[in-house]
Design a protein that fits this description.
By secondary structure, the chain is α+β, with helices and mostly antiparallel strands. The chain has five helices and eleven strands; from the N terminus they run βββαββββαβββααβα.
Length: 173
């Protein structure tokens, strides 16, 4: 059984076994079935956990949408469900929209996803790596964060290109 802590706002578990303490289990008994093992419950209906709660989980692999909201000790984590990003050239223009307050330039999650050629879910997962919490396609992302993301992936892509050149040189020898 793997132990997870919720780092997003809410996580819903739909199937599998959960290891819960008495205080966690009692208010959720309408959605759980007892097993022969003490503290282990079978999920009968969707079961919700709030930020900061920890629980044990055993069952089918958790989706990326769930994993992005969990910190875990097990092998299964968001790293195993990572997003592959496209190459962004320096010439790519970053679209922006003004915020309602007009104080900073911002971009929506949807716009950033389109720029990176990612789905909204994958864009939200990517932003969580930068400790930015986005909840919907129209969540506003500061352009300063967008530029940071683009800079890091441009330099990562440049590093991969150099490694590929070295490998091709080695193959030629």
């Amino acid at each position: 059984m793997e132990t997870y802590t919720v780092i997003g706002s809410v996580v819903t578990i739909n199937t599998g076994l959960l290891e819960l303490n008495k205080g966690q289990a009692e208010p959720r008994m309408h959605a759980l079935e007892k097993t022969e093992e003490a503290g282990i419950f079978r999920v009968a209906n969707p079961t919700h956990f709030k930020r900061g709660e920890s629980f044990g989980y055993e069952g089918p692999p958790l989706s990326k949408v769930v994993l992005v909201n969990l910190a875990g000790e097990g092998e299964e984590s968001i790293e195993s469900a990572s997003v592959i990003l496209p190459v962004i050239s320096e010439d790519d223009e970053i679209p922006s929209v003004s915020s309602e307050e007009g104080s900073d330039d911002v971009m929506t999650v949807k716009q950033l996803g389109e720029l990176l050629n990612l789905s909204v879910k994958d864009t939200i997962a990517l932003l969580s790596d930068y400790e930015f919490v986005a909840s919907a396609y129209n969540s506003k992302v500061p352009v300063s964060l967008v530029e940071q993301v683009l800079d890091e992936y441009q330099s990562a892509d440049a590093g991969e290109g150099a490694e590929a050149s070295e490998e091709e040189s080695d193959d030629a020898l």
